[in-house]
Design a protein that fits this description.
The complex is a heterodimer.
Chain A (H helix, E strand, L loop, with lengths): L4 H6 L6 E4 L2 E4 L6 H18 L5 E4 L3 E3 L3 E3 L3 E4 L5 E2 L2 E3 L4 E5 L5 H5 L1 H9 L3 E6 L4 E8 L2 E9 L3 H6 L2 H6 L3 E3 L7 E3 H4 L5
Parallel strand pairs in A: 4-8, 9-10
Antiparallel strand pairs in A: 1-2, 3-6, 4-5, 6-9, 7-8, 10-11, 11-12, 13-14
Chain B lengths: L4 H6 L3 E4 L2 E4 L6 H15 L6 E4 L2 E5 L2 E3 L3 E4 L9 E3 L4 E5 L5 H5 L1 H8 L4 E6 L4 E8 L2 E9 L3 H5 L3 H6 L3 E2 L9 E2 H4 L7
Parallel strand pairs in B: 4-7, 8-9
Antiparallel strand pairs in B: 1-2, 3-6, 4-5, 6-8, 9-10, 10-11, 12-13
Classes of the chains: A alpha+beta, B alpha+beta.
């Protein structure tokens, strides 16, 4: 079965659905507050940085990839204005962020990761609120390579670590798409317990 | 020179990755050890001639020597009583904060390259088991099995509930059905 974009839109999907391989997939019930907050924190950082610049950042946009996939990532940065339409993004964003939840983790690590890789999304973040990490994949020769996992442990976890382990923690990192934007993983989990 | 307790903890075990000596994490947590024991015990129920090893030294080459949490080896020719020389049939890594980057990055690519047919990434915080199977030389995520609490399960949509699988098999044995709740059964809390 072939899905044209118009058909996708005709499916009368309510907002929290995705279409993967032509199949309508109900998204999780409303995400937990912490999930939304982490997404908002990332959105705010990117929005502040991009204010007055060329690229744009979207929260939960409809992203059409190929003719069988409509995804709704938590955050997406798009630098190619040509693919931004009022109904959604038609093509690969430059950066996609998915905040993991119990019900979506298998897709975020499986089908969607492969999809983003194939479609040429150059940077992909997986964010875990429960475990307070940001896992960064960069596209190299068409394949995602794990760049790093940045963790912001909770106080009791820090207490359990040795000094050497604490010294090894890296909180700040840059994205591959902007030279002068430094992300601090502590800001991602700001005020979230 | 004074050796501190932290030095002692830090020097426990070493791996060699891409020719570089890597100090392993300090002693694993009780949760980590309990999970290791559970998995080892489950595998031992149905070995059919294979060997299950906890934290074995596995040598792929001079440049890559690893000590995964659990390995299943069916080809006894690659065992010499102290070291596994080559690819186990199943490798299990239990994540800890200081190793997760390597477990998901370098070591995953290493196991893929040397042909480890099945690779599990186990997370004792989220109580999940990610199973990767080698297909045409590439790891594909087979599924993520999650030991959900009753509340977590009840909060899911009907479709998500239907998608959850709590029992699964390894590629090795048809007769062994693994329950994800057994993997995390009675592990240390605190």
């Amino acid at each position: 079965m072939n899905f044209a974009y118009e058909n996708l839109l005709d499916l009368d999907c309510d907002y929290r659905e995705e279409i993967l391989k032509g199949k309508v997939v109900k998204m999780a019930p409303r995400p937990a507050t912490e999930h939304l907050e982490a997404g908002d924190n990332i959105l705010t950082m990117l929005k502040n940085y991009l204010w007055g610049k060329d690229c744009r950042v979207f929260s939960e946009p409809d992203v059409y990839l190929g003719d069988k996939d409509l995804v709704v990532p938590d955050v997406a940065v798009v630098c190619n204005h040509g693919i931004i339409k009022s109904k959604g993004i038609y093509g690969a964003p430059d950066l996609i962020v998915e905040v993991l939840s119990r019900s979506t983790a298998p897709r975020d690590r499986g089908y969607k990761k492969n999809l983003y890789e194939q479609c040429g999304v150059s940077e992909y973040w997986l964010v875990s609120v429960a475990e307070r990490f940001v896992e960064v994949y960069l596209l190299e020769d068409g394949k995602y390579v794990l760049n790093n996992i940045y963790t912001h442990p909770r106080q009791h976890e820090l207490d359990d670590m040795t000094q050497k382990e604490r010294d090894r923690l890296v909180y700040q990192f840059k994205t591959s798409i902007f030279d002068d934007l430094v992300i601090d993983v502590r800001d991602v989990f700001q005020n979230i317990n | 020179m004074n050796i501190t307790y932290e030095d002692f903890l830090d020097d426990y075990h070493e791996e060699v990755l891409d020719g570089k000596v890597i100090k392993m994490a300090p002693r694993p947590t009780f949760r980590h050890l309990d999970t290791n024991h559970n998995i080892t015990k489950i595998f031992k129920k149905n070995l059919s001639g294979c060997v299950v090893l906890s934290e074995p030294d596995v040598h792929f080459s001079k440049k890559d020597k690893v000590a995964p949490d659990v390995a299943v080896v069916c080809n006894r020719d690659i065992l010499d009583g102290r070291v596994v020389h080559g690819a186990p049939d199943i490798v299990v890594e239990i994540l800890s904060p200081s190793t997760s980057k390597r477990d998901r990055g370098y070591k995953k690519r290493l196991y893929q390259r040397y042909g480890v047919a099945e690779y599990w990434i186990v997370d004792t915080n989220s109580l999940t088991v990610e199973v990767y199977l080698l297909e045409d030389g590439q790891y594909n995520l087979d599924n993520i099995y999650q030991a959900l609490s009753e509340a977590e399960f009840n909060n899911m949509s009907e479709q998500n509930k239907a998608e959850q699988a709590f029992k699964f098999k390894t590629h090795l044995w048809d007769g062994l059905i693994i329950d994800v709740y057994d993997i995390f059964k009675d592990i240390y809390e605190g």
